[in-house]
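Fig. S4 source data, part A: sequence.
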Amino acid sequence: MTNNITQNNKQELDDKKTVDTEIVALEKKKFKKAKRQIAKGRATIKCSYNNTIINISDQTGAVLGWSSSGLLGFKGAKKATPYAATQVVANVSEKVKKYGVQELEVFVCGVGSGREASIRALANNGFEITMIKDTTPIPHNGCRAKKPRRV
């Protein structure tokens, strides 16, 4: 008789555990955070002689996605090529698609060869470019420049 009662108690406990786990699973599904939809964003492109780095953020500056040519596996001098810049833009746009960004303000910094290629690739990937601004730092007769390189 006691053995029968303990089996019933075990059965009830097992039933309660399965119900509890189902409730927890439903709560997790219910409170899953939805991705916010952002219409306007900022694309910051840094093109140096050695690399191209692009990040896309919202208007407040919170980064939505970023990528660089070194991250994609380009090595050495190939990191600064226009082809690498287009591949970086494709990677970043894939990451940012889930946020619904359509319009971009583009800020370009640096003197590398991927500047124009990355802007063109942003336009080709479905973004509407509303503004392009060059933020390359230019000295106003500050520090003395390095001596020219002799090759």
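Fig. S4 source data, part B ends here. The helical segments are 2-30, 82-96, 115-124.
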